[in-house]
Write a structure and sequence with these properties.
The complex is a heterodimer. Chain A is α+β, with helices and mostly antiparallel strands. Chain A is built from 18 helices and 31 strands. Classes of the chains: A alpha+beta, B alpha+beta.
Chain lengths: 756, 295
């Protein structure tokens, strides 16, 4: 039974409105779309990591009977063929220099995929090899090859001076006298840590279809930020915004991999050349080469007093952003920001460098920054607890930032009781009770910036039959946003959820939403939906009052009608009779709601809490880690749909477990991806989530979103890796490098085992 | 992938092998397709003809022969072996091994004959059947059948003694492998593939001592290997020696003889260490199961 019969009250685990169509296979994704005359693209990718491009011979490809066009760098010389929302440094096709193995060099548009593949195989490319910076160390070494020369264009149109090294961006934060504290502190822990590069696997790899006509271009794309992509395409191809139309049907997962611009420019360039719709689709290897998570290395030291009070922390962070900036600067910023963790400090010194290398570009992935950093700080907090004789819960409650306190002076204060979150986890995990040998328990907590830039507009219309349509620019990416937005509208308008639909994003018709990411769709876009529904309700109420001939404030609204005691008039009837028309028909009543950045005095919109606990066992003979129990806290202010909150935590947990225990993109010395296939890159599945998993939903109503909600779904990436690393330490395995593969765990245990 | 491939559907082994001989190098036998279709998809195999073996009744046999051996047709799938009451009764550990193999999609299409003929080093059945002393019947276009032990079937990575026109029509597990205690151990890599596999078959005499033992290791090396020297060292061992874990010498010779190499899944050192762990576990478990069998 997937049809929800009841009212659309917020706080109820209503079934997802898209569940049935997805289960039946009728839900449409970009890949399902067919257009008359549509061509299929093939992309020739570079086989070397750094080289000057010699002659590229496409003559044989052009002669292939199935090929309609071959697109080379020359074909986009008349447009501004670079994209990148932070730095506009990425060419549609390699611009005379190849900067990573896998970079697109030439594309063909053919009548089918086989023709495209056959044509690509005939293309000869000559490379003149350049020195390679295959990793961050090589990229920062004296005399390292410079990846990007010349003045830098920012995504906002400004220009910066040319780089003299490969540091794409820096984050620095200094507060207090760190050196003096470290010189005198009784307890200091330090270490060097590594976090792997991983792949943000989505069931649907990137795909875009573009159709260029005299009126502009329409792009159907599996993307998270259609409005930002629209702006980039308009700037690149010299079109007015209104001539670029982005349509986003259901998206088969993104997790950050589909944020910002991906395949769209190539699809547009190919359609522009052929005048026909062109489909560009990644396979798994292509997806891995399009975006990945930054690998990171980090030095950290933390000082505390003998009572376990945290005093100072210092970190040096290196992020490998690959050949192009992509979202690297912001990921690096978020990583630096996460370094202190949610604690009070006397002094901090954080430096994070985002470094260009000849690896495939890295960008966003669920919980970025928090995922990279929190486990490191949290493992040092546990080490300090051990040295000062405290338990993991006490050292945290002693140091956590309290309600109303600031993590950073000029940023948004913390609104929730973090200590209570940790206590809830400790209770559920029975933390402190003895565990058998080779078992361990661990907890961890981090905070991530949520909400991104809070700019959203929504429309909510009520039609003459009382049906409600929500139009918002959020992408339904599997998170259930259309269900949640429908619930919000149903709640406000007092109609059953079954009367509400949320439509797909189409920049031609759905109003602006900045992006789908940073856990913002419920909080920010949802707030716009709430306001739009309230606007529609106010209009309806006024009409209803007139029709019922009573004061508007005396009207009750529920069950799809406006009530004056026992007398009722349905929403549809109000719409039909709004202008006093008697049978002449009537248009919808349309409510409008907006959220603007100026409403928020400080950033972030909210702090997303990531708190988790784990109970695990380690096989001392093999190093295999088995998760026995997992506890997460979803501190969401208000759960619009509790089941969806739980599913978000579970999904994030599966990915966090993968990142922590086995996922890793491997690269050669020269930065060439070595495991570009699902045969040798394992994606986590439901099997990897422990059978005993508890998601504790905390509802304090402290969020800025609708009904006091704040976002969720990324926080687990902060807490869970730390909980795993701390539980491993509790079991006797000290790790400073993830993922915790059996061999790595076995090696970490060996001296311990031999010494015992 | 298969747009330009002609698929043939012979209904007898004779027809299939004749086709293979006739079509030559542009053709291949298609059993479950779990490996071959993947290779074609990756562009590593370019074939014009596939000879589908799914419609050959002879390959579907699954029976206990008059001499007490278990005869498995080459086309029997892993899932069929896992679920077969006959296999569960006479070779329960083999049924369990097959049930745990890869994932359901692979088990439902992959066949025992295809698995052995493909000779991927990462194979649970190959290790198990090597320890069991099983033989395969290979049939070629000339109409001649020959029997080869599973141990001798594989020469190296993806390399067997099979002629191009030969296919594995049956696997025979001898009666001696269907009594006593059996234990198959596997360690999965982070890629969900068997990284080290060990099988032990143990029989005990009326004093409880080991009267017969067969061991094999695989997946960490180029082909499954019988561990004969280790076997010899365990003969006559009693409960005291086995339970106190006094297997060091037998483990050491196994670790000496099985060659492994560093690869993306792990170092040779780690895999060799795991060989020791799994060998101890399999011998111990098989030993206890043998006791139960006797009781």
């Amino acid at each position: 039974m997937l049809v929800d019969p009841g009212a659309g009250a917020v706080g109820r685990s209503a079934p997802r409105l898209d569940a049935e169509s997805k289960i039946r296979g009728t839900a449409q994704y970009v890949s399902d779309l067919e257009f008359p005359g549509m061509l299929v693209a093939g992309v020739l990718r570079a086989t070397v990591p750094h080289a000057r491009l010699g002659p590229v011979d496409v003559s044989a490809a052009l002669e292939h009977p199935g090929v309609v066009a071959v697109l080379s760098q020359d074909d986009v010389a008349d447009v501004d063929a670079y994209y990148g929302h932070v730095y506009r440094d990425r060419p549609i096709l390699a611009d005379g220099v190849v900067r990573f193995a896998g970079e697109p060099i030439v594309a063909v548009a053919a009548i089918d995929a086989t023709s495209a593949a056959e044509a690509l195989a005939t293309i000869d490319v000559e490379y003149e090899p350049l020195p390679v910076a295959g990793n961050v160390e090589a990229a920062l070494a004296p005399g390292a090859p410079l990846l990007h020369a010349g003045p830098r264009r920012r995504g906002d149109g400004e220009t910066e001076a040319a780089l003299t090294d490969n540091v794409c961006s820096e984050y620095r934060y200094r507060d207090g006298d760190v050196e003096t504290i470290f010189d005198s502190a009784p307890v200091v822990v330090e270490g060097t840590y590594r976090f792997p590069s991983v792949y943000q696997y989505a069931m649907e790899p990137h795909i875009s279809i573009a159709h260029w006509t005299d009126d502009g271009v329409t792009v159907w794309s599996s993307c998270q930020h259609p409005f930002l992509v629209r702006a980039e395409l308009a700037a690149m191809f010299g079109l007015p915004l209104g001539r670029v139309r982005m349509r986003v049907p259901f998206v088969g997962g993104g997790f950050g991999s589909k944020s910002y611009t991906r395949l769209e420019p190539l699809a547009v360039a190919l359609s522009r050349k052929t005048g026909r719709p062109v489909r560009v689709a990644n396979d798994i290897e292509g997806a891995m080469l399009t975006s990945r998570r930054h690998n990171m290395s980090c030095y950290m030291r933390t000082a505390a007093d003998t009572e376990g009070r945290l005093l100072a922390r210092q970190t040096r962070i290196l992020m490998d952003t690959g050949a192009y900036a992509d979202n690297g600067p912001r990921v690096t910023h978020a990583t630096g920001l996460a370094a202190p963790g949610p604690y009070r400090w006397s002094a901090l010194d954080v430096e994070a460098l985002c470094v260009y290398t000849n690896r495939p570009p890295a960008g966003s992935y669920r919980g970025f920054g928090n995922a990279h950093m929190t486990w490191i700080g949290e493992s040092q907090v546990d080490e300090i607890a051990r040295r000062t004789g405290l338990d993991p819960l006490t050292i945290r409650t002693r140091n956590l930032v309290g309600v109303g306190e600031h993590l950073y002076p000029r940023m948004t204060p913390v609104t929730t009781d973090l200590a209570a979150d940790m206590e809830a986890i400790a209770r559920e995990l029975d933390l402190g009770s003895p565990t058998p040998p080779h078992e361990g328990k661990g907890i961890a907590i981090g905070l991530g910036r949520g909400g991104a830039e809070p700019i959203s507009t929504a429309l909510v219309s009520v039609d003459p039959e009382g049906y409600v349509k929500v139009m918002a620019g959020s992408t339904e990416i599997g998170q259930g946003v259309r269900t949640v937005h429908s619930q919000i509208a149903a709640e406000v308008l007092g109609v059953p959820l079954g009367c509400v639909t949320s439509v797909e994003t189409d920049t031609e018709y759905t109003p602006f939403d900045r992006s789908t990411g940073a856990s913002r769709s419920t909080t920010v876009a949802g707030l716009a939906v709430q306001r739009a529904a309230e606007d529609a309700l106010a209009q309806l109420r006024e009409c209803a009052a007139r029709l019922l001939d009573i004061e508007p404030h005396r009207i009750d609204v529920h069950d799809g009608a406006f009530w004056d005691g026992g007398r009722a008039i349905g929403h549809g009837e109000v719409v039909r009779r709004q202008a006093g028309a008697a049978g002449g028909g009537a248009g919808d009543i349309i409510g409008r709601g907006s959220v603007t950045a100026s409403e928020f005095a400080t950033s972030p919109v909210f702090w997303e809490v990531g708190a988790a606990g784990v109970h695990l066992s380690v096989d001392p003979d093999t190093g295999r880690v088995t998760l026995l129990k997992m506890v997460t806290v979803a501190d969401v202010g208000r759960a619009i749909n509790p089941a969806l909150v739980e599913r978000q935590d579970e999904g994030c947990a599966a990915q966090a477990i993968g990142n922590s225990l086995f996922e890793e993109l491997e690269f050669t010395e020269d930065g060439v991806l070595a495991n570009a296939s699902l045969l040798n890159y394992r994606v986590p599945t439901a099997e990897d989530v422990p059978e005993h998993s508890t998601c504790i939903i905390i509802e304090n109503g402290d969020g800025p979103g609708p009904f006091g909600a704040k976002g969720c779904g990324e926080g687990v990436f902060g807490g869970l890796p730390g909980a795993i690393v701390n539980a491993l330490a509790d079991a006797g395995v000290q790790l400073t490098e993830l993922p915790a593969t059996p061999e790595r765990v076995w090696r970490a245990m060996r001296p311990h085992v031999e010494g015992a | 992938v298969l747009t330009n491939v002609q698929v043939h559907r012979p209904t007898s082994v004779a027809h299939a092998t004749a086709l293979r001989e006739e079509l030559g190098d542009d053709s291949a036998f298609l059993a479950g397709g779990t490996e071959l279709l993947l290779l074609m998809k990756l562009g590593l195999a370019d074939l014009d003809h596939l000879i589908n073996l799914k419609y050959i009744p002879e390959l579907r046999a699954l029976r206990l022969a008059a001499d007490g051996s278990l005869v498995i047709g080459g086309g029997v799938t892993h899932q069929e072996l896992a679920e077969s009451p006959l296999v569960r009764q006479h070779a329960p550990e083999f049924a369990r091994t097959e049930a745990a193999l890869a994932n359901l999609r692979v088990r439902i299409s992959g066949t025992i004959g295809g698995n052995l003929a493909f000779a991927d080093a990462h194979s649970d059945p190959a290790t198990f059947l090597t320890a069991a002393g099983a033989t395969v019947t290979c049939s070629g276009a000339a109409g001649t059948d020959r029997d080869v032990t599973v141990e001798d079937l594989t020469l190296g990575l993806y390399e067997t003694v099979l002629e191009p026109d030969e296919l594995v029509t049956a696997v025979t597990v001898p009666p001696s492998a269907l009594i006593g205690g059996v234990s198959h151990q596997r360690f999965e890599s982070q890629h969900h593939r068997p990284m080290v596999t060990v099988t032990a078959l143990v029989q005990r005499d009326d004093t409880g001592r080991i009267s017969a033992v067969r061991l094999a290791a695989g997946s960490l090396c180029r082909r499954p290997l019988r561990l004969r020297e280790s076997e010899a060292m365990l003969l006559g061992a009693g409960a005291e020696a086995i339970e106190s874990g006094d297997l060091d010498a037998a483990v050491a010779v196994a670790q000496r003889d099985v060659e492994s190499a560093d690869d993306a899944e792990g170092s040779a050192e780690y895999k060799t260490h795991l060989l020791g762990v799994l060998l101890r576990r399999s011998v111990l478990e098989a030993f206890h199961r043998a006791q139960k069998t006797d009781a």
